[in-house]
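Sorry to interrupt, but I need a hand with the structure work. Go ahead and set the record down below:
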Amino acid sequence: MKKLYINGKIYVDKEHFEESMLISDGIIVALGTNEELMKHEVDEVVDLLGKTMLPGLNDSHLHLTMMGDYMNTCNLTSAKSIDEVVGLGKKFLAEHPDTKVLIGKGWNQNSFQDGERRFINRHDLDRISTDIPIVFDRVCIHVSVGNTKALEILNIDETTKIEGGEIQLGADGKPNGIFNEGAVKLIQSVIPSKSAEDISRDFIRAMDYAVSVGLTSVQSCDVMSKDFEKVFNAIDNIVKENKLKLRYSHQFNFQDIEDFKAYLRSEHLYGVYDEKMYSKGALKLFKDGSLGARTALMSTGYNDAPDETGVDALDDDKLYELCKLAHENNIRVLIHAIGDKAIQSVIDVYEKLIDDKENTLRHGIVHNQITTKAQLEKIAELGLTVMYQPIFLLSDIAIINDRVGDELEKTSYAFNSLYQMGAPVSLSTDAPVEDCNPFENIYVAVNRMRFDFTPREGYFKEECMSVGDAIDAYTIKSAYLEGKEDFKGRLKPGFVADMVILDRDIFTIDKTEIKDIKVVETIVGGNTVYKSSCAK
C-alpha cells in the first residue's frame, strides 16, 4: 500500500525539513515538495495540515512490564510526608479490601515537605496494617521497605545477610524494614509471583501508554530474575499473536553468572527474533544504586554523610567475568552506574574488553550521572554509549550539591558536554522511575528546569541541549545504540515508516512549552498504532 503525507513540516535532519513524504508497504520511498510527490499514484493521501512530524521516538532504557505493574498498585508519587504515605496506603486498602499483599510504588523522602525527611520504615508501614504484608518501593526502585508482617513471613532477622545489598538495622539492632540493592529482591519475594498472563497484561497496558506519548521503539529491561523463562515466554507470545505495537529490544539482567549461562544455553540459542520489530538485545547489569538513596557508589564519602560511600552491587571481578562472557558471545553490555567510583569501574572493565579501541558491540553505561571531566573524556575516547535520563533532574537538582559537593557537581549530569564530545548519547526515562513521556524528558534536557520553571536560568545552563540534539538523541542516536541506525531513527528513503505527528511545532514554540506537547498520531511501520481522539 502506498500512502502520501502532504502539507507537513517533516523533520529530516538538522535544519532540514520537507513538506511531503511517500511510503510504500511501511518503508519510506521519497521526501520532497507536495508538487514533486503528488505525481505518484498512491492509495491514500494524508493532509498533515501544517503539523510537525518527527521520526518515531526510541526510549533507550526503561522497564515496560514494571510500568504496567505500577499502573495497578498503590501510587505513592504524590506523597509529601510520611503521614501521606501512610494515608495513601490506608486509602488503597479501603478501596481494595481483598488485597492479600499491599504493594506501593514511588515514595521519595526528598519530596517530603512536612515532618521528617527520612526513609520510611517498617514501623511506618505497620500503621497501615500488621495483618497483611506490605512492600513499598522508593521511586528509584533501589530501596524497598517491608512492614513487620512481611519480615516475619520471610523469617528475616538481624542475622540475615545478602550479597550486594543491605538489610538495615534500627537502633534496637533489629531490621527496620529498609532493604537496598541486592536485598530488594528478598523483601519483594513476599509478593506472589506473577503468572505469564499477569506479565502480558502489564506489558500491554504499558505498551498502549507508550505509543500514546510517541514511543515507537523501546529498549526495555523486563527480565530481572532467575525466573526468566516466564518473562521471555510472555513477551514471545505477544509477538506471536501480533499484538506488538512498537519495536521492542530486550535488556536482560543477570547479576549471577550461572543465571547468565543458563540464558546462553536456552533463550540465546533458541529465541526467535527478527531484529526489526523484536530484538534479542543486551545484557543489563547493576554496578551500584541511586543518588537519592545514597547507594550510588562514590570514590569518597557523601558530602552530607561522610561515612557512607554507597553500595557495590557487583564487585569488579564478577563484573568483568560477566562482561567478558557477554563480549565473547557478541552480546552488548549495558551497565547501570551512577556514582563516580561505579563509573570508573565500568570504564576500566570496558577498556580491557575493547582492546582494539573500537566499541563495535556498542557497550554502554546507563545513567552516568556523577562524573569527573576525565571520565567524560575517556567515555568519549572509547566510544562508550550512554543512556542519560535528563528528567531525573526534576528531583535531583535539590540534592546533588548536598550529596557530592561543589567540584563534582560541576561535571555531573553533563548531557550536553558528552554529546558535544562526540560520544553516542541517547535519552531515556528509566520508566517507571519517571514517566516515559519523551516530551517531558526533552523539556528537561533543553531547559534543565523543573516544571515550575526553576531554576530560572537553568541548572548549569551550559549543559542545556539544543532541541535538535535532544530529538536526535531520542531517535537516530538511540537507534545507533541498538546497531539499528541503518533502518530506523530518521525519516529518509529506505528507512521504516516510524513517525509521530505532534499537536504543535517543537522547533518554534517557547522551549518551556515542550513538556505540554501532545501526540496526534503514532505510526509504526506505516500503521497507525495510536490516534488522539482530538485529531482531525
Remarks:
- The chain is about 30% helix and 20% strand.
- The mean pLDDT is 95.
- The longest strand covers residues 278-286.
